[in-house]
Design brief:
10 strands, Transposase Inhibitor Protein From Tn5, Chain A, domain 1, alpha+beta
């Protein structure tokens, strides 16, 4: 809970008003929920699939409480206190039907299997499906964090001094923002959604040979029609971007 308190205090000192928070199951603890309730902050948190939760799922099955959301998903909700909790809280359950697996040459349609997600929330504004979608918005943030780790080694602290590590971290943040600008402004279609390792592999780290002699030495790349098209398009977009910025600067002046 100390981490949660410290984070909220830092945001408060920056005059950032926190109205709601999404948390993963690492924060699933009544002390955290009680603190947020005292602060008037709504929360949506992934719950741990404990033995108690499995008993609740069995109860929902027995009572046929599931409401279909689609061919593969169903939702249910219940308000209850967990053992040793001081009060009841709202839980949303999401059930996903798994596709039948092929065993040898036979496909078994009789035995259905399910995956479950459990979410706890203090909000009564959203129905179960909306609670689920609200929680899943945090997945995009996790994807960005994973991209920072895989693409730029954001989690690695290679320097002995704290100040140097902080400087390296900000260089990585700057690099990430430049790469974001590059793909959003200069690339088209699915290429604009490519992650950092893909951009590095397909566009930035392109193998080539140093050829020529004396003063005329240059890099020769292997024929790559796709890369030629991407770079030609990027040059045109860059020219368009620079012209637009120049027009804005002149107009603003």
């Amino acid at each position: 809970m100390e981490f949660l308190k410290e984070t909220l205090e830092i945001l408060a000192n920056q005059n950032i008003l926190v109205k709601g928070i999404r948390m993963d199951k690492g924060f699933f603890d009544e002390d955290n929920f009680a603190y947020l309730e005292e602060q008037g902050i709504e929360y949506i948190c992934k719950a741990k699939l404990t033995s108690n939760m499995k008993k609740v799922i069995k109860y929902l099955d027995d009572q046929e409480r599931w409401q279909p959301l689609s061919n593969h998903y169903a939702a249910a909700e219940i308000t209850l206190p967990l053992p040793k909790w001081s009060k009841a809280r709202r839980f949303v359950f999401i059930r996903e039907t798994q596709e039948p697996k092929v065993s040898g040459e036979q496909l078994n349609f009789d035995l259905k299997t399910f995956d479950y997600q459990v979410i706890i929330t203090s909000s009564d504004e959203y129905n179960p499906e909306e609670v689920w979608h609200q929680y899943n918005k945090r997945c995009n943030i996790e994807n960005k964090i994973d991209e920072l780790k895989v693409g730029l080694g954001f989690e690695k602290m290679s320097q002995a001094e704290l100040d140097r590590n902080i400087a390296f971290m900000w260089l990585k943040v700057l690099s990430y923002n430049i790469l974001n600008w590059f793909r959003l402004v200069l690339l088209d279609g699915k290429d604009s959604r490519a992650e950092v390792p893909t951009i590095r592999r397909k566009i930035l780290n392109v193998p080539g040979n140093i050829v020529g002699n004396d003063r005329y030495r240059h890099i020769k790349l292997a024929p790559n029609p796709w890369l030629q098209k991407v770079l030609k398009n990027a040059k045109e977009k860059l020219q368009e971007f620079l012209c637009t910025q120049a027009w804005v600067a002149v107009s603003s002046g």
